[in-house]
C-alpha cells in the first residue's frame, strides 16, 4: 500500500494535523486538551484534583470545573465565602464568619438568628403587687400601684417615716396611706386639730370657758364652783356668822341675821366692840424678839392696832451700840410684842412660819386666775407700784404662760407630788398647786408681799394647804439684806449683810433678816416627794446657791425642778453640771423631748428638770 493510501486510512482525532505525511514517522499536532499518537486521548485535568476543601472536579476539554462545597468559591474553591458581608446581624450585633454560615453575637436584650428579636423581659411578669410591666431593651420598668416602690414594686412604702402625725400621735402604716391614732383632745387626718371642748359651752351661770388640750376650764362667776360652775357655793358652810346668828346663803355671798345686841357683816360686833369703829385700819410692823432661853436672834413679826385716840404704837426703838450679836440680843429683849409668826416650831430656831390665824389688812385688788377648773383668786399690787407682775396679770391675765401651763399639766397628772415654792412672791404657783389639791411650802423673805399673799390664801381658804416660811435661804446661817427695785416687786434681791448693816433699825424694819440653810429647809418640809419651783435672785452673795443644795436633794425626793433659765445664764455651766451629776433631764415640756445639754447656752425661758426614773 502506498504512503498516500495509508494517509487516507489513518484518521487524526479532534482536528489534529500530521506533521510528516510521507512515511510512518509522523506525529499529530493536537489541540489543547488532547494527546496520544493520533491525538485521540482527552487529557484529564482533574488528575491530580486541583479543587480545594473537598470540592468535586469535573473534567472538561482542556480544563475542569470545581463543584465547591457550600461556603466556598473560586476557580479551585479556594475561597471561604464571608457570609458576614454584608452583615446580616441586627441591632448592632457582631457577626462571626463560619464555613457556609455565620453566628450573630447579640447585644443584651436581643435574640434570634440575626438578633432580630427584642427579648420581652416582662414575660413572665417580674413586677409584684399588681404592678404593670413596661418592656424595654435589655430590661423593664415596673409601674407600681400607689403605696409601693422598688425595682419590682416589692417594697410597701412606710408613710409613717417621717411621722406625719401631730401632737405626739402614733402613726399606723397602711398600703398607700396611714392612720394617726390621736392623743385625747385631738382629731383630724394628722391629729392637727385641737378639739374645742368649749363648743358648745359646757360652763354654767355665765362662766367663761377656756379651751385646753383634751379638756376645758370654766372660769366661774363669783359665787359658783364645780367643773362646769354648776354649784352655787354655800357661803354659809362653814357658818361665818358669829354669836348664834342665822346665815342666809346668797349667790356669791351671804347675809347674817344677827341676834339682838350684835351687828356687823358677821354679827361680830357687840356692845364692847363698838368703840373699835373709830380705830384706823390695821397695819403691820415687824419687830425681832428673843425667845426665852435661846441664844440666837429669832425674827418675829408683830401686829399693832394704831388708834389716834389711844395712841397704841410700838415701844421706842433703842439704837444699836455695837455690832456684836450679844449687843443686839440685849437690846431686843425689851421688845415683847404679839407674835405674827407661829412659835411652835422648836427644832429650827430661824424658821419663821407665817401665822394665817391673825387678821391682816391689805388694800390689794384680787382677780381670778385663768384656766383653772375652780375659781382661785390672786391678790396683787397696784400696777403703778408693780409694773411687771401685777400689771401683766391685771391687764392680760398672763404670767409665765408656757412654764405655768406645764406646771399645771404636771400636777394634774401627778397627784402624789407636793410643791416646795422657793421665791413664791405673791403665790402664783403656790395658789395654783393648792387649787389642784397639793400641799405647799412657800419660801418668801420679803415682808411687803405678805399682806397680799395672806389675803389670797384666806380668800381661797388655803390655810391648811399652804405653809409660808418668811425666810431667805443662804449657804450658811447669816444675816442678809433685802432690797427692791423701784416699782418692780419681781426684782427683789438678797445680799449678804455686812457688819454696819446689822442694826436694830434694819432688823426691826425687816431690811435685814437671819437666813436659813438648805439643810434647815430640808428638815422642815413635811413631805418627801416634791416638785421644786426655784425663782430667787442673789446678788453679790452666792450666784451658785442652787448648786449648794445637796442637803435638800439628798434628803427629799425632788422629782421635778421648774426654773427660769434666763435668770441663771451666768451660772449655766455649774447648774447643768449639778443636775447632770444627779441624773436630771432638761425639758421645755413635761411630756416633751429632752433638750440637748450641749446647747444649754441657747436655752431660753422656762426650763424643767426631770429626775431620770432609770437612775
Automatic annotation (TrEMBL):
Disulfide links within the chain: 68-77, 106-115, 144-153, 182-191, 220-229, 258-267
Chain intervals for the UniProt region annotation (Disordered): 308-333
Domain EGF-like: 42-78, 80-116, 118-154, 156-192, 194-230, 232-268
GO cellular component labels: plasma membrane; protein-containing complex
Residue spans of biased composition, Polar residues class: 308-329
UniProt keyword annotation of Isomerase present: no
GO-annotated biological processes: establishment or maintenance of epithelial cell apical/basal polarity; heterophilic cell-cell adhesion via plasma membrane cell adhesion molecules
Gene3D superfamilies: Laminin, Vaccinia Virus protein VP39
Record's protein name: EGF-like domain-containing protein
Organism, as annotated: Mytilus galloprovincialis
